[in-house]
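Quick note —
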Amino acid sequence: GVQLTPAEEQSIRDNRASNVLAFVAYGRGLRERDQGDYDAALRDFQQAHQLDPGFAAAASAVSTTEDMISAVTAASSATGRSLVAAQITAMGPGRLGNAFRSIVTHRASS
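Predicted structure written out below.
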């Protein structure tokens, strides 16, 4: 088997959820974020953090996802839709491409 160092064991203890529903919400958030749906991911991470305020990974994921949303939104606003659309096309499939595509589609329909 794998032998963990004392620091690794402590890290695992520090980053686990004490509430199983928080862990499930966190897992959903990871999946949504990987698929580029940052808004859904943020809701799931916020739910995980609300259910288990001591779950450090959920709190960190909330902050990271908020930063990702801000960065994508700023890039979308600063460069204009046509340039963003060209960048998305060039990027092809992927998490950031999906995020840009989601924001541009949402803004275009608003």
